[in-house]
Amino acid sequence: MNLYIAHAMKSLLLAVFLHCVTLQAVEPVTLTRHLHGNADLGEQRDLQADWRDGVLKLSTAGAELHAWAVINAPKGGWDFGTHGTINADIANTGDNPVGIMLWVVGDHGWEAVTDTAVVAPHQTRTFSCNLRETFPDGTPKLNPHAIKQIQVILSEPAVSRDKQADAAGAPPRLLARITKPVSIEVRKLAAHGDAPPWTRPEGRLNVPNVQEDAPAPGKRVRYRLPVDGPAGLYCVLNLPENWNANAKHPVVVEFPGNLFFTPGCYSTGLPEQCVMGYGMTKGKDAICLGMPFVNRLSPRPVESGWGNADDTAQYAVQMVDEVCAKFGGDRQNIVLTGFSRGAIACGYIGLRNPQIASLWKGFHACQHYDGDGWNGATMPGALERAARFQGQAVFQTDNPESKFREVMNVMKTNVTWVKSCLGAHSTAMFLEDRPSTQKLREWFSQLVARPQP
Length: 453
Description:
Strand order of the largest sheet: 13-14-15-19-16-20-21-22-23
CATH architecture of the largest domain: 3-Layer(aba) Sandwich
Strand content: 25-35%
CATH class of the largest domain: Alpha Beta
CATH superfamily of the largest domain: Alpha/Beta hydrolase fold, catalytic domain
Helix content: 10-25%
Number of domains: 2
Largest sheet: 9 strands, mixed
CATH topology of the largest domain: Rossmann fold
Number of helices: 9
Shape: globular
Number of strands: 23
């Protein structure tokens, strides 16, 4: 009997120990310990932010393109590799409903995950972002070991006209603008839950973060034309790891997608978002340029729309000239690529006039192309622009051949059509060794190795 009791007591103590370990493993980790005041907050867009006593208060009377506040990771970053979610209690303290997006944004080119909802006046909701969220094909959106920021975005809820979608629990449709005063409070921002070991996809690339620094091999830096000064309009310049000042290097010029925040897409509209060139080259053997859309009346990149399309085309020509003159860009091997708005820009901007059209040896477009009608890119205009193409090949990712074959026929070139199977509006597929990306890399290598006719 004594042995039995001793064994039972041992088992009980072990169970209590394991229970305590489990409780310790899932203990929430507060994300705001490094904040001591408003000066510790990151970027703030079109709102007033106040951090005090563990509460982030945000308010705005109006905004054209969302309003947001950012909490940057502390020095050394955040590692949530053993947690499942990032949660926060967010209260609408105003008198108008507000659309709220809580975003967890990845580092080194990883994507972002969100929880999105409309919160009624004087109501509180717990937001929860799944750190293990995947794209429809199972590809992880985030590396939970590398998170760079939390971003709270405010929007105006649209009046829903789709009762069937509402009944099915579809995410709310949010407008980019804010026309009525709104205010919220964010509390208890913390990592929660216990999660199994995270597995990194084989061959997944880490993109270097963008820095304010001088160009150097392997770095992605903001680079400015002399006319724009040290704080003006910029592109993102990435010299390859094996850059040689005495050699000629192919150049990949890339246009980003539009500013677009929905539950399925996090797109800032800025040159920093350009990662396709890095994915095509794996950071080697070619110079990559992430380009802005430009309106010369503003010193900032245009996040939404074309800006002034002629200004954008002129800036691209000037920057290509700069990179070829100063960093050994090979004028015989310049390839234009783009995602979403940037894919349309391959034709809409890249073939805008004979001067810019003469630059390109080939195009790669992902998820849209010139002629689909967005923002004035009509099919008649696309056909006219297509006649200016002088390159040798085009590669289309996730674009229907039936929709764009007519434009390709006018371009009189070899066209490769592939499906990424990612199942989302994203550039994540280009940072992996999936078949469509491997085919794109082979296409690029063969194109730049091919002599000019």
